[in-house]
Amino acid sequence: MKQFPSRLAVTLLAGFLALPAFAADSLAKVNGVAIPAARAEAMMAEQRAQGVPESEQLQGAIREELVRREVLAQEAAKKGLDKKADVQAQMDMARQAILIRAYLQEYVRTNAVSDAELQKEYDAIKGRMGDKEYLPRHVLVETEIEAKAIIARLQNGTPFAEVAKESRDPGSRERGGELGWSNPGMFVKPFADAMVGLEKGKYTRTPVKSDFGYHVIQLDDVRAVQAPPFEEVKPQLQQRLQQQMVERHVLELREKAKVE
Q: pLDDT for 199-229, tens place per residue?
């Protein structure tokens, strides 16, 4: 229903000026079966959450959608589809998913992440970034002998981008080995240590071993870290901490549950 109401529905209901009067708890009746007004409000709430302005046109489209759903549901029931085991299982799962979503939304609402926690997370991330970021490139090969041969070719004047074509790293191979602006924490320790120890424009004169193989690293540039302002990343931090909080809560509930 994310795209509801459709253009067709809106067009068909463009002339809809006023809704019939219904009881406060009933939106309409289909073959004598009342459609609860609460369903319309739930659907309207979804549209509001997506920024759709409330209007008579939208109300009419929602009413028509709910009527059509009731018509189809009644026809399905006439054929006994609601009694089929697989259909009942899917209905149970859909109900369970809605209930879980409501519970987690309520949990997040009543356990809001504080500004102090957000600031602490921001400071921790900023600290891990360090005060510099680096623009390295590398060649990754399988053996130390291959890495030493690469270094020999560099010493003889072969451009780094040329030897990078032989790298086992497909992500950087087509870019001349370039890895983009990075902080040391993004790399395994042997790689990071070798990178920060290089002068700008220099490459490692001995192979750097890691779990991935042997690297020859060149440092193209260094610059001071420009961390985004706290207020700019606050929404992302809030979402991240909320997600971590929910994951911890689910694990705690799982550990307490008696499963036989």
A: 999 999 999 999 999 999 999 999 998 888 9
